[in-house]
Amino acid sequence: xxxxxxxxxxxxxxxxxxxxxxxxxxxxxxxxxxxxxxxxxxxxxxxxxxxxxxxxxxxxxxxxxxxxxxxxxxxxxxxxxxxxxxxxxxxxxxxxxxxxxxxxxxxxxxxxxxxxxxxxxxxxxxxxxxxxxxxxxxxxxxxxxxxxxxxxxxxxxxxxxxxxxxxxxxxxxxxxxxxxxxxxxxxxxxxxxxxxxxxxxxxxxxxxxxxxxxxxxxxxxxxxxxxxxxxxxxxxxxxxxxxxxxxxxxxxxxxxxxxxxxxxxxxxxxxxxxxxxxxxxxxxxxxxxxx
Length: 291
Description:
- The protein is of the alpha+beta class.
- It contains 8 helices and 11 strands.
- The chain has helices at residues 3-31, 33-70, 75-100, 105-122, 124-139, 179-183, 210-223, 258-275; strands spanning 147-150, 153-160, 164-168, 174-178, 187-189, 195-197, 200-204, 227-228, 234-240, 245-250, 252-254.
- The strands form 3 sheets. It has a 5-stranded antiparallel β-sheet with strand order 4-3-2-1-5. It has a 3-stranded antiparallel β-sheet with strand order 6-11-8, with no helix packed on it. Strands 7-10-9 form a 3-stranded antiparallel β-sheet, with helices on one face.
């Protein structure tokens, strides 16, 4: 047998099985053409359901948000409901798409339920955050724009999400706080009430005339139009401390004016006490030597 004959035999040994496989595949496609077309149409339908369903879900969720905004509901609550509606509706769209490609809906629901149980056990923290988010929306300890202190973080509430709440700090930092840590800890809402009390401690020397000092402080408070007359401001001696006599100045102001009035009062009190010759002492200690 020549080398050329050996080469041809090897080629035929490779080509014949390949040709047989192609012919077999072509024959199978021809025999199952209707079935393939059926599955292809179902797959295309499922994709169309996903695409159109996603658009419809966005439209419905946005419509719900617009209705809630028209009802003047708090924007943080609106964002929470918007996200919740979108997730729920998109889950329904996914189930419909799977049903279109032949997956039994009952089986999908059962699988989702089992998976939900398993994921729930694995992600207890996330579920607690979700439940806490619902409680925040239901009981509304704060609303969008309120200045609050939660979990040792102070800031304005920007939005309430499904699993967390977004705060904006005074120095323009964004802090994401898990909802469960908010519900599980004290919440201080500085914006809930329309008025707040300013608490200042003014220290003066033991040599100061206390009646004169009180009169100066009362005049400063009376001359500031931002300070409310009801409730009446409290001014008096609170303590005889080691190095000073401590006056408390406790006027009431609108919540929006709290910081502006606080800064203004501190500066005005210092200037007016200096003009009146009333000393604000440094911490000091008198040492008496005896033989």
